[in-house]
Write a structure and sequence with these properties.
The structure is a homodimer of 295-residue chains. Chain A has 295 residues and is α/β, with parallel strands linked by helices. Helix content of chain A is 52%, strand content 13%. In chain A, strands 3-2-1-4-5-6 form a 6-stranded parallel sheet, with helices on both faces. The first copy, chain A, has a 3-stranded mixed sheet with strand order 7-8-9. In chain A, α4 (72-79) packs parallel to α5 (97-106) and α7 crosses α10.
């Protein structure tokens, strides 16, 4: 089996490493950035390297499109003319609705698009940042849909082989959930990091000299890729606005208890949040197996 | 030298371990919770154990008060009658102004209070959670002030011996800075964790099944002690409200760019936040040495 990877950044290069580790087939790699392609070659991430996405498309049975959300549709449009009959295309983008709708409109009838989203990652990027175990025990969402059950099963099979837990959602539900669990934490991180300058002005001291572990963890993902996050916010605008409203109300509620010095309410609020955190996560900070009991 | 520790939770037990490791003297331990005191004894954290804080006070040269912010003043008031001449009392509370003011009012003239705050910790608590290296390379703030320079120097010396970086601030400035770098991240964590229930209702799915590393890190400190955080929010109310306003404006600004799909502004906002994060933290997520260049 020829597995194509277009875009050899953090996710693409992690998939390449995982596919090689689990001997899933020949790995064909393309990246429009010449230096990324060269680095992939130097790191021996693939079987063959292509400086042209169409040439890769002409030989691949399955293609993982691992480019930023804003480029996925154009990349797929670009390779359409050269796809073999029966080729399955999947992506790894963090937003699914609009991309799925657009690609399904123009994709040839004898090809398949299976929207995917491995929920793993880090704040790093580039071919050297990948890890073969990035997907192990992590959720890998595939988008439900009529007319491509067999294609979906194939991608699910690959995701399971590299250790991921495959979950199914419809595209809009995925985008709503991820707006809360992923896009919102990034807004917090960017805003806290940017706000540190004003906080320093207020205190007439560099507040960052006094930052502890809680600030470090809150802002970890502020180091993430600018291109990628600009796209995600734009493509998932409505859901991001919706969950931001929800989150702001939650914060306002806690802060209004603090403002009015309502000891009992503060205690109840914190205790409830603490209970949820301890229910869902174990001591090592990993999602706990207990969560399945609650479902 | 007899070093007393009142309150053998995370910070108290970490100090005990660090003092023993660095052979700083005999370690006298009291905790009003009988089970904590027994656990400290079982873990061999101290030299001697006291079921009465006054008895400990009568023998200590230096006393670290490591109880929640809301109990510090009462604990110090309670041991006052039994203090030896020249005893230095220090605390490790996360809020300094009001406690410092109150204690200085009633403390006997021949004793000294040096307000302190080691900026380290974790979401865990109790005598078993402590670590001897909890303070290594971490900031340890001491509050500036006239009339107790020699006492401050002694505490600074101990903090340096256990590996901490001693920094000096006045009490109000400390409380303002920590409101931003520590109390605010906790508000985010509690609100995000509590908000997950509403997000699940909205999505009609348990959103926590799809939580990735960014949500995990944002909410890590939601597992922190309820008692401790209730006190911190109440004692630092004004500064917490002030920095929350600042943070909310920052988030609103980013989200309004998203709402209006202002691509350039979103990019600039994220790029600036990213630049700050990468300036202050190295690749391992530790505060970078570079920050000193900026000062």
């Amino acid at each position: 089996m020829n597995i194509g990877i277009i875009g050899i950044g953090l996710i693409g290069s992690s998939l390449a490493r995982a596919f090689r580790l689990h001997k899933l087939g020949d790995i064909l790699i393309h990246d429009f950035k010449r230096e990324h392609l060269e680095e992939a070659r130097r790191l021996e991430l693939g079987t063959r390297y292509f400086d042209d996405a169409q040439k890769l498309a002409a030989e691949a049975d399955i293609i993982f499109v691992c480019v930023p959300v804003g480029n996925i549709v154009d990349v797929v449009r670009g390779i359409c003319p050269r796809l073999k009959k029966g080729t399955i295309i999947t992506d790894v983008g963090s937003v699914k609705s609009s991309i799925t709708r657009q690609i399904r409109e123009f994709l040839p009838r004898d090809s398949f698009f299976v929207p995917g989203h491995p929920i793993s990652g880090s704040e790093f990027s580039g071919p050297a940042a990948g890890q073969a175990d990035l997907f192990a025990n992590r959720p890998y969402v595939l988008i439900d849909g009529e007319g491509y059950k067999a294609a979906t099963a194939k991608i699910a099979n690959i995701a399971a082989k590299i250790g991921a837990n495959v979950l199914y959602l419809d595209a809009d539900c995925h985008d709503q959930i991820l707006a809360f669990t992923s896009h919102l934490p990034h807004i917090c991180a960017f805003a806290a990091m940017a706000g540190s300058e004003q906080a320093s002005q207020l205190a007439q001291q560099d507040v960052m000299s006094y930052a502890g572990p809680s600030f470090r963890d809150l802002t970890r993902v502020a180091a993430a890729s600018v291109d990628m996050w600009k796209d995600i916010f734009l493509y998932n605008r409505q859901h991001v606005l919706e969950v931001y409203k929800l989150f702001r109300q939650e914060m306002d509620r806690l802060v209004s208890f603090i403002e009015r010095a309502e000891t009992g309410e503060i205690e109840r609020y914190i205790a409830h949040a603490r209970e949820l955190r301890c229910f869902y996560y174990d001591n090592r900070g990993e999602l706990s197996a207990k969560k399945s009991e609650k479902n």
